[in-house]
Amino acid sequence: MNKNVIFFILSFSFFSVAFAQKEIDKDSTQANYLIIAPEFTYHKAIDNLISPLLYKGSMAGIKLGYESTNNKRKYGFTLDGNLGLLKANTDYYEFSATQVNSELNVFYKLRMNKNSSKFSLYAGFETRFRMFFHYNPNLMNAALNLTSVYSNGLVASIHKDWFKKGKNNKIWFIKINTRDRYLKTSFELGLPILFANLRQPVSTISDFSDGQNLWSVESYSHVQFNKAFAMNTKTSIDYILHNGNALRFSYLWNIYKFEDAGYKYQSAYHMIVFSLLVKLN
Amino acid sequence: MKTKIISLLLFSLLFISCEKMILKEQPSENPTEVFNYLWNDLNERYSYFEYKNINWDNIKIKYQSQINDNMSENQLFEVLFDMLCELRDGHVNLISPFNISRYEFYLQGQNNYNERLIRENYITEDYYVTGPFINDKIINHNIGYIRYDSFMNTVSHYSIDYMIARFQNMDGLILDIRQNGGGSVTNIFTILSHFVDENTAIYQSHIKNGPEPDDFSDFQIAYAEPDGQYSWTKKPLVVLVDRGSFSASSFFALATKAIPNITLIGDYTGGGLGAPTAAQLPNGWTYRFSVSQTLTLSGYNYENGVPPDIYCTLTESNVSNGKDDIIETAIQLIENQ
Question: Which of B325, B176, B199 is closest to B258 using CA atoms?
Answer without folding.
Answer: B199
